[in-house]
């Protein structure tokens, strides 16, 4: 198998706060990795390290087989940050314009061909918001915005989707539909790394789980995670409530 992301003994601190300590793990092409852990356990930081948004203090990160600091093919990655759906001050662009921005990585000097426009239209249809293409992104609900951002990633031909708690603030029905969409995309071969606070959702969907609380408590297939004590151990020190929705 080909590693899309490879972390080797990675440590990262914010000043005196160690957020990620000595984590080694890899994400293989086509897998669906669920990243779980209590609040403040380093999930967002770890995702940022994976994508080269933070440089590790110790250890190394490879992205698509290259040292992450040398990686420059951002179009291969669709990243939706933790605050993406709730952020108010977005640019007043339509869904179609937003998704078109994802396509510019492939269009020389910003000139879009008919084929680029067709790719944009396809991406918008794929995520099920064709009827919203001419609406402003700022007018969409959280779940619809999430879909627009995924469409933008698809239009850029991303083969890795990195999602940080994408359904916070999204109603249950839209959330289920959104996760069904992720399943379809994963079936089509897109690699997914998903941070999700609802453990039940992740264990239903992901093929492998990484469970962290600063250090890695578990990394392996979902079944062995469910059977292990990793979850209780990782959450144990924090006293946070676990949410099982089944
Ligand atoms: P999670 O996503 O699991 O909630 P984070 O990666 O956001 O965790 O945070 C991990 C730890 O790092 C926490 O203790 C948090 O307070 C701290 N932290 C996160 N971002 C910053 C920052 N920009 N500056 C200082 N500390 C931070
Ligand atoms: Mg976070």
UniProtKB/TrEMBL annotation:
Coiled coil: none
Molecular function as annotated in GO: ABC-type vitamin B12 transporter activity; ATP binding; ATP hydrolysis activity
UniProt-recorded name of the protein: Cobalamin import ATP-binding protein BtuD
Cross-referenced Gene3D superfamilies: P-loop containing nucleotide triphosphate hydrolases (3.40.50.300)
One Pfam family it belongs to: ABC_tran
Catalytic activities: an R-cob(III)alamin(out) + ATP + H2O = an R-cob(III)alamin(in) + ADP + phosphate + H(+)
InterPro entries assigned to the protein according to its UniProt record, in alphabetical order: AAA+_ATPase, ABC_transporter-like_ATP-bd, Metal_Ion_Import_ABC, P-loop_NTPase
Stated role: Required for corrinoid utilization. Probably part of the ABC transporter complex BtuCDF involved in cobalamin (vitamin B12) import. Probably responsible for energy coupling to the transport system.
The UniProt record lists the keyword Transport: yes
Known EC number: 7.6.2.8
Keyword DNA damage among UniProt keywords: no
Enzyme class per UniProt: translocase
Assigned protein family: Belongs to the ABC transporter superfamily.
CDD domains: ABC_Metallic_Cations
Ranges for domain ABC transporter: 5-239
SMART domains membership: AAA
Keywords: ATP-binding, Nucleotide-binding, Transport
Assembly and binders: The complex is composed of two ATP-binding proteins (BtuD), two transmembrane proteins (BtuC) and a solute-binding protein (BtuF).
PROSITE patterns xrefs: ABC_TRANSPORTER_2
């Amino acid at each position: 198998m080909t590693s899309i992301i490879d972390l080797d003994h990675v440590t990262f601190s914010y000043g005196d706060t160690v957020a990620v300590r000595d984590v080694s793990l890899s994400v293989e092409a086509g897998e669906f990795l669920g990243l779980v852990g209590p609040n403040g356990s380093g999930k967002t930081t770890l995702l940022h390290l994976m994508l080269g948004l933070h440089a590790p203090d110790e250890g190394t990160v490879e992205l698509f087989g290259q040292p992450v600091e040398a990686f420059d093919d951002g179009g291969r990655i669709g990243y939706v940050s933790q605050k993406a759906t709730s952020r108010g001050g977005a640019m007043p662009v339509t869904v179609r314009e937003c998704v078109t921005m994802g396509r510019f990585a492939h269009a020389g000097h910003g000139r879009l061909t008919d084929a680029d426009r067709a790719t944009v239209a396809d991406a918008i249809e794929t995520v099920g918001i064709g009827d919203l293409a001419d609406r402003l992104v700022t007018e969409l609900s959280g779940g619809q915005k999430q879909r627009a951002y995924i469409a933008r990633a698809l239009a850029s031909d991303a083969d890795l989707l990195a999602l940080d708690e994408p359904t916070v603030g999204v109603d249950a029905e839209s959330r289920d539909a959104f996760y069904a969409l992720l399943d379809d995309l994963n079936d089509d071969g897109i690699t997914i790394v998903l941070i999700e606070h609802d453990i039940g959702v992740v264990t239903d969907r992901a093929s492998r789980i990484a469970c962290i609380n600063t250090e890695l408590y578990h990394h392996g297939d979902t079944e062995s995670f469910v059977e292990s004590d990793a979850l209780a151990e990782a959450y144990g020190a924090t006293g946070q409530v676990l949410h099982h929705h089944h």
